[in-house]
Amino acid sequence: MSIHKFRFFLYTLAKILGDVQAVKSGDPKKVARRVGRRVAGKAAGRMLRRLIK
Q1: How many domains is the chain built from?
Q2: Are 22 and 34 spatial neighbours (Cβ–Cβ below 8 Å)?
Q3: Range of the domain at 48
Q4: pLDDT at position 1, please?
């Protein structure tokens, strides 16, 4: 396994664990905040990608 694949796996695992932790807390505000930030991050990434190209 290459370092790239291992690093990708760790980041993916951390993202999933963060989701589980937010849901497990039982606070709907935490889950909504997490989803909102993920959507905003993806949108920002797409806009930056378009600017750089």
Answers
A1: 1
A2: yes
A3: 27-53
A4: 79
